Amino acid sequence: MKTYVAKPDDRQRDWYVVDAEGQTLGRLATSLADMLRGKRKPEYTPHIDTGDFVVVINAEKIRVTGDKLNSKRYWRHSGYPGGIRSRTLAEMLEKQPEEVIRKAVKGMMPRNSLARKQLLKLKVYAGPDHPHEAQKPETLEIKT
C-alpha cells in the first residue's frame, strides 16, 4: 500500500471569503491557519502547499473574550537601545485591524519557509469590501 503524496501540479487552490464579524479571534485564526496549510483537504501533504486562498473581511469587528482588549499587548523593537514599543489590542484594532488577524494566524503557523509562503495567501481587509471579485471566491461560514 502506497502513501499518497500531493504534487504541485495536481493541487487545487480555491478562494474563500470569511466574514470575521462577531468571530472570536483565536478560534478564527486556528481555522484560517488550517485552511492556508491545506489541512482540511484529504490530499494534505506537509511539505507541499495544498492550501487555499482566504480573504477575511470585517477584521475591525473581531471579538475577544475577557479583558484582552486592554491587557493583550503587541510588542515591536526598532533595533536601537530603548527602542521597544507596545500597543494594546484596542489600539491595534483602532489603527491596524488587519494586522491583528494576520499576527494571530502567523503565530499558529509553523516557523519555516513554506509557512511564510502560505501566509501570503491570506488577504485581510478591515471593512466589508475587497478587490478579489475576479477570483469568484466562495463564502465560507466558520463556526466558532
Describe the strand arrangement of the main beta sheet, using strand numbers.
5-2-1-6
Q: What percentage of the residues does DSSP assign to strands (E)?
A: 15-25%
The profile of the biggest β sheet is:
4 strands, parallel
Structural Rg: 17 Å
* Low-confidence blocks of residues: none
User: Please, what is the CATH homologous superfamily of the domain at 15-61 and 96-140?
Assistant: Ribosomal protein L13
Q: If you average the pLDDT, what whole number results?
A: 95
Structural class: alpha/beta
Ends distance: 37 Å
Number of strands: 6
Shape: globular
Query: What proportion of the residues is helical, as a percent range?
Result: 25-40%
CATH topology value of the domain at 15-61 and 96-140 = Ribosomal Protein L13p, Chain: A
Q: What is the string of helix and strand elements? A: EHEHEEHHHEE
Put simply, the count of helices is 5
What's the structural blueprint in terms of helices and strands?
Elements: E1 15-19, H1 25-37, E2 53-57, H2 68-71, E3 73-77, E4 84-88, H3 89-95, H4 97-107, H5 113-119, E5 122-124, E6 138-140
Parallel strand pairs: 1-2, 1-6, 2-5
Antiparallel strand pairs: 3-4
Helix pairs in contact: 1-4, 3-4
